[in-house]
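Researcher: I'd like a candidate sequence for this fold, 283 residues long. If you have to choose between options at a position, lean toward the conservative one.
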C-alpha cells in the first residue's frame, strides 16, 4: 500500500513534476496559452489579434468588459467591437487578460464542492488584488499600472495549479493551509511562473512578495502587490488560519505612513474604478 504523503511532500512532488516538464493544464488553459504565444509575436497585427480573441468567446467578452470599464472608458462611450477594444486597451492589457483566463481555467472543473468554492473565492480575491494593484501603482507607488495589474493576476497562479492537482492527492484540501503559506506557495508559484516564461524582473518582484514584507512607505512593485493584498475586501482562501486572514497588517499602520486622509482619498476616488475593473475581470 502506498504511504500517505503529508502536504509538504505533496507540494515538493508537484514542484518536481513541473521542473521535469510535466505541467498538466486543462484544455481551456492550453488554448489560452497558445493565444498568448500568438500575441507575444511582435508581428501580430491588430486585426489578427482581434480574430484570435474572438475565437475564445469568454476572453472576447472580458476584453469588451474591460474596455468599457470606468478606468478605460473615460468618455462613457461603450463599444462592442473586439478590434476597437484591443486598440483602446493595448496589447499589454490584453496579454494580462489572456493570463487571467489561463489562471482561472488552470484549476479545471471539479465535482467537489469544496474545490469549487476555493477556486471561486481565489479568483474573486485575484480580481480584486489585480484591480487594486493598478490603482495603488498609479496613486501610491508610481509603478507601471499595467505591470501591477499583471502581477496581481498571476500572484495566486501557483494556488490555482495546486488546486488542479487536488484530485490526485487525497487530503490536500483538508485542514488549513499553513504548510501552503510556509512552504508550498513560493515553491509551486515560482515553478509555474518559470514554466509560463514570465519575465525575470516580474519573478524577482514575486520572490519579494512571497517573503511577505511590506516596506513602508511602499515603493516597489512587490510593495504595490502587498499593499493591494492588505486593502482587498476579499481575502485568499489559501491564506486562512482557523477562519482568520493570516498576516494582514493593521490598517492604522498603513494610514500612519501613507496618511489617513491620503489613503482615504485614494480609496474613495478609486472605489468605482476598482469595482468596475474587478467585476470585468470575473471570468
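Model: Candidate sequence:
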Amino acid at each position: 500500500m502506498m504511504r500517505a504523503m503529508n502536504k509538504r511532500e505533496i507540494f515538493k512532488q508537484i514542484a518536481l513534476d513541473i521542473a521535469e516538464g510535466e505541467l498538466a493544464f486543462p484544455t481551456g488553459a492550453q488554448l489560452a496559452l497558445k493565444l498568448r504565444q500568438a500575441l507575444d509575436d511582435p508581428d501580430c497585427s491588430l486585426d489578427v489579434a482581434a480574430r484570435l480573441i474572438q475565437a475564445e468567446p469568454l476572453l472576447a467578452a472580458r476584453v469588451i468588459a474591460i474596455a468599457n470599464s470606468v478606468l478605460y472608458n473615460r468618455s462613457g462611450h461603450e463599444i462592442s467591437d473586439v478590434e476597437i477594444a484591443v486598440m483602446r486597451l493595448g496589447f499589454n492589457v490584453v496579454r494580462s487578460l489572456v493570463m487571467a483566463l489561463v489562471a482561472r481555467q488552470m484549476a479545471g472543473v471539479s465535482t467537489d464542492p469544496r474545490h469549487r468554492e476555493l477556486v471561486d473565492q481565489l479568483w474573486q480575491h485575484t480580481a480584486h488584488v489585480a484591480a487594486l494593484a493598478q490603482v495603488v501603482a498609479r496613486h501610491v507607488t508610481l509603478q507601471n499600472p499595467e505591470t501591477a495589474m499583471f502581477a496581481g493576476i498571476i500572484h495566486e497562479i501557483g494556488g490555482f495549479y495546486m488546486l488542479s492537482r487536488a484530485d490526485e492527492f487525497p487530503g490536500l484540501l483538508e485542514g488549513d493551509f499553513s504548510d501552503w503559506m510556509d512552504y508550498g506557495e513560493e515553491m509551486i508559484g515560482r515553478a509555474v511562473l518559470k514554466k509560463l516564461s514570465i519575465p525575470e524582473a516580474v519573478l524577482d518582484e514575486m520572490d519579494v512578495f512571497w517573503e511577505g514584507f511590506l516596506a513602508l512607505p511602499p515603493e516597489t512593485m512587490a510593495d504595490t502587490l502587498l499593499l493591494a493584498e492588505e486593502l482587498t475586501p476579499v481575502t485568499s482562501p489559501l491564506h486562512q488560519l482557523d477562519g482568520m486572514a493570516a498576516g494582514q497588517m493593521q490598517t492604522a499602520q498603513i494610514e500612519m505612513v501613507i496618511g489617513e486622509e491620503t489613503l482615504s482619498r485614494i480609496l474613495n476616488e478609486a472605489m468605482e474604478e476598482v469595482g468596475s475593473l474587478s467585476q470585468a475581470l470575473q471570468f
